[in-house]
Fold:
Amino acid sequence: MGQRINQFLDWLSDFLAHRKGLLPIIGILLVAINFILQFIPLAGWLAQTNLMLHLGIIVAIVGILLAWAL
Structure:
């Protein structure tokens, strides 16, 4: 099990090393989705909790830190 996790992390590290801007772009898209959800009446819980906003900010910050480290 531990070897499989190590292989996955190695693959993920190699993947993200060549695409340094991918996670910040995904984070920005999640923030934009949250903005759009504010105007959709059926969004309900997602719009009230700003879940996409919080996820987007976390993903973008982690992406910037990973891009800096890789």
User: Anything to note?
Assistant: The CA atoms of residues 15 and 43 lie 33 Å apart. DSSP finds four helices and no strands in the chain. The two ends are 25 Å apart (CA to CA).
